Each structure stands twice: as C-alpha cells, then as structure tokens.
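re: ur question from earlier - yeah i can do the single chain one, its not a big deal. heres the input i used so u can compare w yours
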Amino acid sequence: MSIIYKDFFMKVHHFFLPLFAVVSSALQAETTITLNSDAGDYIGQGESYVYTDENSVIQYSRNYDNGITVRINNLPGELSDWWTLNIAAPGDAEIQSGIYENATRFPFQDATVPGLSFSGNGRGCNTLTGWFEVYSVSYDATGNVESLNMDFEQHCEGGSAALHGSVSFNTTTPVGARANGLDLYKVVCRNRTSGQKVVFTTDDASFDCKQEGLQVNPGDNIQIKMLGTAQ
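and the output i got, formated as tokens:
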C-alpha cells in the first residue's frame, strides 16, 4: 500500500489547479467561468482564462438533449474569445447534482453515457473523453437554468492533455478539491489568514472545506492537506 500526502496552497479568488477541481471562494452569488488548459491541449492552447459578467456576455440555456448549454462571448474591448459548453446526462435525463463520468462528444454520445463538449475560438474536438461534476443546479418553473455550479475535464482525440474548467452561475463556489487517483481518508483545511483549521475524514473524491465549517473571505490564503492511498 502506497500512502500519498498532498499539500497545496491557494489565495482565494477564481483560478484552477491542474490536478484538482476548481478552488475558489465567494460569500455571495456570482457568475465566473475559469479554464485551465494543459500544455498540448488543442482547445485551450495551454492557456488559462477567467470570464465574468464584467468582461463577457455569458448565456445559459437548455440544449436539445435536455442538458445545458453555456455560451461565452467577450465584451467589446476585451479579448475576442467565444466558447460554447454543452453537457447532457445519459438518456436525455435532466441534469442534476452528481458526477458524470465516461463522457463522450456531445451531441454524438451513446444514450448510455453523458455528453460533453467545450469548443470555440475556431477549435473543436473530433472525438473526446472526459467527465463533469455538477455540485448544484436549479431551474425555474419553465425549465430555464437559474443556477449552476460545476467542474469539467475534457481530452481531445484520446490525448492525455486536458482542458479543465469550472462554471459558477448564481452560486457560491466551494473551497475544496477533487482528488483524482487518490483514495482519501483525511483532509486538513487551514485558513492561513485567520488561523482557523478544520480537520475531517472522508472517502469521497470531492470535498468542500466550507461545508466542513471553514470560514473564508475573498483574499484569504488557504492551505489544504490531503492524506490517502494511491488507487
């Protein structure tokens, strides 16, 4: 048995850690989309991106697979980025909270697997694999998307390089991580700004330090330690 210990730091704002899920904090509803592209990823070209209502027009709608479409267009005077994200549940079910693994390219996915596609700026995947995790989602009485909080990971053409992304629409985002390749059993979350520390045990791949009682304000420096065994 190999014991793995991971320790990383962050300053609370909106950015993406390559090996984990998005880490961010907000105490009020927000709209933020962050992207982090690995070297060799065709879609993101190895760059990082942050989109908010201040620099972009971000639209949310339902797609024809009963899933969700997110469109991003920069405002005049900003970089000329335009992107489209589509997600769909297996069997055209309505998107709900949960982990959607083994996703393939939307809208050509088999009925038994989720659909996923992030494309734009003149680039798209011919084939892809990936996953997405929806932390929370809500709809109004007519089925329109009211809020969405999710992460995703996409690999083009079977490659190892990935595009990592996070969407936070009318939600407060978690301070936590997704421990890929690690069977967790202990997590220590420390707010180095205030000195508060929260320790808890979990066997879930994803966790949220705020849900475990960590008090966080924008600008705080957070340390997360994870202890587990390699899968």
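Residues 1-6, 8-28 have pLDDT under 50 and may be disordered. not sure if urs matches, ping me
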